[in-house]
Amino acid sequence: MATAELEHRLLGRVTINVRHNSRHVSARWKGGLVSLNVPQGVRLPDVNRILDDLTPQLLATRPDVRYHDGQELCFPMIDFVVRRQRFAPSRILGTASVPVSSVEVGCDWDFNLDSTSAAISDMLCKVARKVAPQLLVPRAKALAERIGRAPMGWTISTGHRTLGQCSSHGIISLSYILIFLPQHLCDYVIYHELAHLSEMNHGENFHRLLNRYLDGREDILVKELHRYSWPVLRK
Question: For domain 133-227, is the CATH number 3.30.2010.10?
Fold first, then answer.
């Protein structure tokens, strides 16, 4: 797969991925930038036309992630502070600590730019990955004990899209990004994986068991999770 970049008048910097085995065009936001997948043989004028056609849809779905100096992002397990720093103007630095972590943005960075939002989001995620094990695993163990379940083990994963997974060996993996959720939505994901210890599929028995863990609120929590506005860019 070949990759190139161009600057679009409305979308900004766009990454072009040429997929040799694809017949279709697709585009999505990734890390604050548009990633466009095109079949082999598509010419530059065609790419610009495709982007113009997709612009209204892409602008409507643009991730609304913005940060500012002095911002506090507060979650049940940890808080994050975003603030300016002047001793390393070109860098964005992170400090991982509990209960408060920080992201320090050099004065060369413009908070109004998408590229700055993407860089801050990346640093927030790096910091979160460091603190997630000491925050998520104790919570998960407490919920498992509450319902009388004992997984064979717990791991913390780095994926953004798969929030949790239960292996056939009874090992539950939780994405570090769960620490950016409200407690009840984080708990929903944990209970979902705990239910897989008994039911590996998503059949009626699985949902019946999960609803027992959640006091019948599965549908409500699923809808709320789908609507949730994440404070970081999910890649």
Answer: yes
